[in-house]
Amino acid sequence: MKSQNQPAISPARDAAIQILYRVMSSAAHSDDLLHSPAVNRLSPEDRNLTTALVLGVLRWQSQLDAVMRPMLQRPDAELHPAALLALRLGIFQLLHMDRIPPHAAINESVEMARDNGAPHAAGMVNAILRRVQREKESPKRTPLIVTMTPEEQAHPEWLITRWRKNFGTAATRRIATYDQQEPPSGQLYTPEEGLPQIDDGSRAIAEITAAAVPNPKRILDCCAAPGGKTAVLAIRHPQAEIIACDISPKRLEAMRKRMDRSESTKHVKTLLADMTAPPAELQAGKFDLILCDAPCSGTGTLSRNPEIRHRLRQSDLPRQADRQKAILNQALLLLAPGGRLIYSTCSLEPEENLEVVNAVTTGSHRTIDLTSLLPQSVSAAAIDGTLRTLPGTQPCDGFFAALLETSPAE
Ligand SMILES: C[S@@+](CC[C@H](N)C(=O)[O-])C[C@H]1O[C@@H](n2cnc3c(N)ncnc32)[C@H](O)[C@@H]1O
Fold first, then answer.
1. Is 222 assigned a ligand-binding role in the annotation?
2. Which of 124, 271, 321, 394 could form a disulfide with 389 if both were Cys (CB 3.0 to 4.6 A apart)?
3. Is 214 annotated among the ligand-binding residues?
4. CA of residue 48 to ligand 1 center, whole Å
5. Which residues form the active site (predicted)?
6. For 341-369, what is each residue's pLDDT tens digit?
7. What is the model's pTM?
8. Which of 235, 246, 320 to mutate to test the pocket of ligand 1 (most atoms within 8 A of CB)?
9. Does ligand 1 come within 6 angstroms of the Cβ of 251?
10. Domain 11-144 maps to which CATH number in 1.10.10.10, 3.40.50.1440, 3.40.190.10, 1.10.940.10?
11. Is 346 a catalytic residue?
C-alpha cells in the first residue's frame, strides 16, 4: 500500500495506516513498528496518536468489523486493504476516541482510502462512517451483540470460551478488560536506578530467578532476547558468568548491543543457539541457575501485543507445547547437581505451562514451591507452588513460572 501522503492526512494517521497494513500483511509486530525510525521522527503528539490508533484498532478489531460488516452492501465481500483499514481507523475514532472531532475522523479516513489505492471506495467509507456516527448518537440502533461484554467481543470466541472454562467468568471479564487498555506499570515494584525498564511481570520473573540460588557461579538464560531479564540477572549477580542464548540472529544482535550499553551487563556472553539442540560449547560445564523463558503464544500479553489475538489459532497451542518441552528437556540436562531452573512463559494456557513442566519432570528433577521467592504484591498469584498471574486480577500481564531443581546426587 503506497501513500501519497497528501496534506489532507495527518502524519499520525498516515503512519498508523501504514503500520496496520504491515501488521495485516506480514508477521511484523506492532510494537517493533511503533518504535521504528519513521515513527521516532514524528512529533511527540503525533507519535502518541499513532500509537493510540494502531493499538486501539488492533485491540478492538473484532468489534469494529462487527459494526462495519452489516453496513456493507455485500457484508461478506473482500474489501481493498486501504478501504478496510480506513474504515477500522474511522470507526475506532468515532466509538472510542472522544477527543477526536467526528468530522476529522471521517474526512481523514476517506482521504486515507483514496490515497492508498482505493479511490473507488471513498464514497462507501464516507457513507458508512457517517452512519456509524448517526447510530452512535441514537444508541438503540447500534448493531452491537450483547452476549459477551464489548471487551470479550474484542477477543476470538474460542479464547474467551477456554478462559471461562479455565478461570471462570469473572476472571475472564477482568482479563478481557485489562487487554483493552494500556497496561499499568510500577504497581508491583518501585523503579530502581540502574535496572532496565521492563514490565512488572517480566521483572517478577527475573527477580524470582535471581533469588532462586544465593550465589550462582554460572547462569544460563536459554531464550534471552531482547534481554530484559538477563540484564536484571547480571545486576543481581555481578560475579557470575552469564551466558544468554537465542535462536534469532537479529534478536541476539539487538541484545548484544543492549548488553554493551551498560557497564553492569557488558560481561554477559551472548550465544546464537537453538536450545532444542544446544551447541557443544554449552555442554562443556554445567550451570547452577538457568532461566528458561520459553517462546509461547503470548496470551498473557494481549494488551501489549494486540495482534496476537488475530493470528493465534487453537491448533497452535500443541505446537508451542512441543517446542517448550523440547527446550526445557535440554535445559534441564545442562543443570548442575543441586542446580535450579525457572521455567516461565507469558501465556495463560495450561498446555504451555504446568502441563509442560509435568511432562518433563522425571525422577532426577522435582518442582519446588516458589512462593517464598515472590514479592508480597503477587503472592496471591501463587497456586500449588507455581506463579500464575492473571491480567486484571493482578496489576500486570499474565505470566507463569515454576521452579525446578536437580537432585544433588545426580
Ligand atoms: C519470551 S521471548 C524471551 C524474552 C526474554 N527472556 C526477555 O526477557 O527479554 C522468547 C525468545 O525465545 C527465542 N527462541 C525461540 N525458539 C528458540 C529456541 N529453539 N532456542 C533458543 N531461543 C529460542 C525467541 O527468539 C525469543 O527471543
1. no
2. 394
3. no
4. 29
5. 346
6. 999 999 999 999 999 999 998 778 899 99
7. 0.89
8. 246
9. yes
10. 1.10.940.10
11. yes
